[in-house]
Amino acid sequence: MKKMGFLGPKGSFSEEAIHLFLATHSEFKETLPTLIPFPTIPRLLLACNDMEIDWAFVPLENSTEGQVGVTMDTLGQTEHIFITHEFVHPIDQCLLTQEPMPLEQIERVYSHEQAIGQCRDFLDKHLPQAEQILCLSTAEAAHKISSVRENWAAIGPRRAAHLYNLHLLNERIQDVMLNATRFVLVSPQLADMSNGEDKTSLLVISENTSGSLYRILGEFSKRHINLSRIESRPSKRKLGEYVFFIDVDGYVFAPPIQDVLWALKEANISVKLLGSYPKALPDEVIF
Q1: pTM assigned to the model
Q2: Rg (CA), the chain
């Protein structure tokens, strides 16, 4: 039986998204993989890199809070895994408690850092007195408050309220109503098919010199290749040095992208392929 890992425990947004992903991708319908929760994103991706599991399903970026840094950093550090699919999932954050209570009585709020960040305005306005405590996942936060009799709350999905027998105190508390997270499926094998609407993700490492980024972007521009995302992350080698995560339209083996990769290689610019895969289709984005 094939194995697919996700950021757990049960009741996380990742678990909610992975079930919708599997339901909308026919290649997984005949033989559903065994779903395995992992406590952290690095452990999940490293398990896939070491072939302990066949796929890893991880959050990559959020429309409100931006990049999920730990996912990007770990993808950059692994050697044998590639993005094969992307999936965009709407995120509604909910305030969960053991029982109904006035907001002013809540003393602590537990959640993942991304969820806390997506609800800053609500927390500042309605829960200024509450201490904010970070957890490894929204599901862990829900589980934690379910096991104690305290005036504590968790931010997480509606599903977590059902799984952990919690009260749904407030719904849709995120600052931006059209709030969505882009998940990616990662595998030790590169996706080998193109459907004509593809995306290629690259990690580009360049010397910290004048004009280096301009040169990189110019290679794409002169071949009329659209960049749909560019993010910088610290190289973790020294202060002030960065690497660039770039998403471009097109399949990696298409001649224009191959031309860019060759040009960058000749310029001694290091490029790591993170994956080449079909774009998420509009009907896969459900708001």
Answers
A1: 0.84
A2: 20
Q: Give me the average pLDDT of each 10-residue run along the chain (287 residues).
A: 90 90 86 92 96 96 86 92 94 95 96 93 97 93 92 94 94 90 94 79 83 87 93 79 90 94 91 93 48
Instruction: Quote the tokens at residue 69.
Output: 């840094």
- Of 14, 118, 135, which is closest to residue 66 (Cα–Cα)? 118
Contact 135/111 with Cβ under 8 angstroms? yes
Residues β-bridged to residue 233: 243
- In the block, tokens 């993170």 appear at 274
Instruction: State which fold the 94-170 domain adopts.
Output: D-Maltodextrin-Binding Protein; domain 2 (3.40.190)
Q: Name which of 72, 86, 84, 2 is nearest 41 in CA terms.
A: 72
* CATH architecture of structural domain 198-282: 2-Layer Sandwich (3.30)
To which residue do tokens 């031309």 refer?
259
Q: Are 181 and 62 in contact (CB under 8 A)?
A: yes
HSE at residue 180, side-chain half, CA atoms within 13 A, is 13
